Amino acid sequence: MKTGEPGLITTTLEKALEWGRSNSIWPLTFGLACCAIEMMAVQASKVDISRFGSEIFRSSPRQSDLMIVAGTVTKKMAPRVKRLYDEMPYPKYVIAMGVCVIQGGPYVEGYSVVLGVDRVIPVDVYVPGCPPTPEALTYGIMTLQKKIRGENTR
C-alpha cells in the first residue's frame, strides 16, 4: 500500500456479519452455584471480557445471545434453564462452565442432579474445571467466537 492511498478491505457480506456477531456477544446473567462466582470475575479488571465484545451481561433472555450455564443443574432447575434458552432470540449460543454442568461433578450419584446440561439444551463450548478459572472462561468465549466466525476450533 502506498502512502496517501485510502485503505481498502474486501470481504463478503456473510463474513462481515459473522465478524460482527462474534464480537458483540451479550451473555445472560445466570448462575446456579459456585462457578457463577468465577463467571462474575471475568468482568473484573484483571480479565475484562469487554475486550472481546462481551462486556454487557444482560438480565433478560430476550436481550441475550449467550447463556453461560455455571453451576450444578438439578432436575428441578432444568425446565427453567430450558425456558430461558427458549426465550433467547436466534442465533443463540451456550457455554457449559464447570464439571458439574458438563457431567454432574461430585454430585454424579445424586438423585436430583442432571448428568450434563446437554441433555436439556444444546451446548456449543465446554469449559471444564471445578471451578474453572476466569481465564478458562475467557478462552471458552474466544473459542465460541471462532466457532461463530466459522473457523476451525481445533
- H and E string: HEHEHEHEH
Structural class: alpha/beta
Percentage beta strand: 5-15%
Q: What would the CATH topology be?
A: Rossmann fold
* Biggest β-sheet strands, sense, barrel: 4 strands, parallel
User: Which regions contain 5 or more consecutive residues with pLDDT less than 50?
Assistant: none
Number of strands: 4
Helix content: 25-40%
| N→C terminal distance | 33 Å
Give a written overview of the molecule:
With 154 residues, the chain is α/β, with parallel strands linked by helices. It has a single domain (26-147), classed as Rossmann fold (3-Layer(aba) Sandwich), CATH 3.40.50.12280. The chain contains 5 helices and 4 strands; from the N terminus they run αβαβαβαβα. It has a 4-stranded parallel beta sheet. Helix 1 (13-22) packs antiparallel against helix 5 (134-148).
What is the gist of this entry?
By secondary structure, the chain is α/β, with parallel strands linked by helices. It contains 5 helices and 4 strands, in the order αβαβαβαβα.
Overview features:
single chain, 154 residues, alpha/beta, Rossmann fold, elongated
Compile the SSE list and pairings.
Blueprint: H1 13-22, E1 27-28, H2 35-41, E2 66-70, H3 78-87, E3 93-97, H4 99-103, E4 125-127, H5 134-148
Parallel strand pairs: 1-2, 2-3, 3-4
